[in-house]
Amino acid sequence: MGRIPCCERENVKRGQWTLEEDNKLASYIAQHGTRNWRLIPKNAGLQRCGKSCRLRWTNYLRPDLKRGEFSESEEQTIMKLHAVLGNRWSMIAGQLPGRTDNDVKNHWNTKLTKKLTGMGIDPVTHKPFSHLITEIATTLAPPQVAHLAEAALGCFKDEMLHLLTKKGVVFVDSAAPPPAASNIGAAPECIGVDARNMGRLPKTIMQERESSEIKGVWAVMDGSAGESSDGFAGLGEVFPANVDGGFGASYGIEGEESAWSQSTCTGAGKCRAASLHDEEIDGGELAADRGDHVGGMFSSDCVLWDLPDDLMIHPIM
DNA sequence: AAGAGCATCAACCGCAACGAA
DNA sequence: GTTCGTTGCGGTTGATGCTCT
After folding, report:
1. In whole angstroms, how far apart are CA A175 and each of A222, A302, A303?
2. Does residue A211 share a domain with residue A273?
3. Do A260 and A275 lie in a common domain?
4. pLDDT tens-digit profile of A171-197?
5. What is the count of structural domains for chain A?
6. Are residues A105 and A189 in the same domain?
7. How far apart are CA A180 and CA A149, in angstroms?
8. Interatomic separation, CA of residue A255 and C1' of nucleotide B14, rounded (Å)
């Protein structure tokens, strides 16, 4: 028998909607409402299935829809709710007037996951990557830990370097002398990479580095005592510590200080944005050896989001 | 200028939940 | 309690436009 199709496959148009179809659907719904989607296309004179009509209406034609870019506050709301609700897009969209679940889902998948990744935060768990590495370290046997941690950080590193490369980030070698103070702030973005890790960078990154000039603020975590400029104050700084303490990155866009990047890690007041300003990294010492969080970046009770109580999911014991 | 690669967004698919009979 | 029809939801795909080489 099989599944009953939602509509007859024959004589049903698919793909992009035309202006004429939009007008037919909108005017029909304006007159008759949205009762019984199966009958709507038939009555409205459309060669579409009801499901397609419903989707077109809810995602595009509805008069109360908001168009255009997501605002900072909308992004913050999505991030906060996703941390609590996961991929419940309709519930998240319900908190954003004028936005549909499809809008939210697309925005999350295309923009916000990349933003979070770039900040060193896992978009699935909303935890810092360093935190995840620690969790791995505490649940697996040492031989497995080393390989898994390296692989996980490698994934993150490649992703972030890819993102930063595309944004024209300047790469500097920590072995090289720091830029002159007069240059601080000259380049909006740069990244420091420990010389020991240079060989591990993807080829494209290395090419980027070779062709770039050192001209901006830099910060690097090279296994020695932390050092950085003050040029990044307030910007979204992320320093994922490698297991060998050799990788550090800082980024921010001058003049584009992101409200959410601040509140993400500091505004809530419960999560410290880890940076070299806040905490020095022990020289060369493996954080795992100390039984500490990798790099000592995030406190163990780090809470990413300061949510109102009614949004929190309380475990049922 | 052309083509490849990438990002974005609209649309589709299949499953689950819900409500009426 | 069961069946059937409808609606809602989330994952995925495909078309389109943009950027880069």
Report:
1. 9, 33, 35
2. yes
3. yes
4. 443 334 444 333 333 333 333 333 333
5. 3
6. no
7. 35
8. 46
